[in-house]
Amino acid sequence: MSIEKEIQQSKFRNAYQKASINLIYTVGWLRDKTKAIFDTEDITSQQFNILRILRGSYPQPLSTLQIREKMLEKMSDTSRIVDRLITKGLVKKIICKKDRRLVDVMITDKGKKLLERLDERQEELDGLLNHLSEKDANILSDLLDKIRDEAE
Fold first, then answer.
1. What pLDDT shows up at residue 80?
2. What separation, in Å, do the N-terminal and C-terminal C-alpha atoms of the chain show?
3. For range 29-47, the mean pLDDT
């Protein structure tokens, strides 16, 4: 459905405003769809992102600063999200071997198993964009990269 129909607005100041509004609306739509999948495992998208990052670095632990640098959504409350993952038994804190004053974070077996269950739903996650051809998905990705490149 067109953005005009979705938000019941037929006029935009220009094509750039329409594209910006469409992008913001679509991000919200995509967030809602992925939230429904993550809710089945009682995690948030930010928790999923941290687990994914830690699985990628496994068996090497990461500091919360390193995690924050790799996150899709940069935020200051990474430590709080990590604490919630610890409470759920999905990650653990370990003493940094290089500097015993620091603490690193590592994914647990329980966290890896949760990601394995979500891996089984990867087609469902990918399916959120399956109305696009692979060529269109690459074009979209390139355009999104271009928006960020131009803004920097």
1. 93
2. 32
3. 93
| Whole-number pLDDT of residue 4 | 86
**Could you give the residue ranges of the DSSP H alpha helices within the chain?**
3-7, 15-39, 45-57, 64-70, 78-87, 109-119, 122-126, 134-151
Model-level pTM?
0.84
| In the block, residue with structure tokens 């990269």 | 145
For the chain, which domains are there? 1-40 (no CATH), 42-120 (1.10.10.10)
* Token reading at 132: 């696009």
For residue 56, which of 78, 74, 72 has the smallest C-alpha distance? 72
- Give pLDDT tens digits for 123-148: 888 888 888 999 999 999 999 999 88
Taking the C-alpha atoms of residue 144 and residue 146, their distance in angstroms, rounded to an integer, is 5
Q: Reduced to 3 states, what is the DSSP secondary structure of residue 125?
A: helix
